[in-house]
Amino acid sequence: MIIDRKAMLQGRLAAKDLDHQFRNRIEQGMGCSPFVSEAIATVVHDVYLPILDSQTNLKTGQMLFQCLSKRNGSTTRIVDAEQVTVVLTIDGGRVDQDVRKQKGIDGLRRFRICRVCSEAYNQGGLLTVEDVAYRLLNVGERTIVRDLSLIRKEGENPPLRSTIKDMGRTNQSNKPRVMARTGIQSM
Q: Model pTM greater than 0.85?
């Protein structure tokens, strides 16, 4: 039998990387086949490496944020939707201070809504009203819907999932709605 020392060296060197260690631990710990452990490693690479291997230098006031991809259709359920990681500017420093001085706290919130929606859209993502309200600005959905109505009256239309995919109540916030219980029209 002829021993292929070069092939043995290649095998030993390949066994000393993190991917091999990860797959080995999956196979040993969970009793998975090499095929399954390779598939799991591929998914981990796809999901986590963009964040861990990111060359993005976040500036002060920015954050990485997980949101829905623009590629999702309007009928795709959120739990089944593809997601992307985007960089959003929550605090724009001096720019935000100037906006607050000119337009007050409510004006600053509306400015930030426009900014984060545009940033997400430009990076392949779409925010939802829930994202903006609960995960980014820590206000109620009604506040965001009211702000969006005012923003649209000023001629801007932030790219939210509801407006881009033509769905949801924020897309129709300028149209009067009839309340089911009272029959009263509201704006």
A: no
Q: Where are the domains of the chain?
A: 12-46, 59-174
Whole-angstrom distance, CA of residue 69 vs CA of residue 26 = 30
For 64-109, write each residue's pLDDT tens digit. Answer: 999 999 998 888 888 888 899 999 999 999 999 999 999 999 999 9
Separation of alpha carbons 129 and 141, rounded Å: 7
φ/ψ bin of 15: left (φ > 0), alpha (ψ from -120 to 50), beta (otherwise): alpha
Residue 119 has a pLDDT of 96
Q: What mean pLDDT do residues 35-61 have?
A: 80
What is the torsion angle, in degrees rounded to the nearest 10, for the CA atoms of residue 103, residue 97, residue 135 and residue 171? Answer: 30
Q: What tokens were used for 52?
A: 């861990």
Question: Are the C-beta atoms of residues 28 and 20 closer than 8 Å to each other?
Answer: no
Which residue type, as a one-letter code, is found at position 39? A
As a whole number of angstroms, the longest Cα–Cα distance in the chain is 90
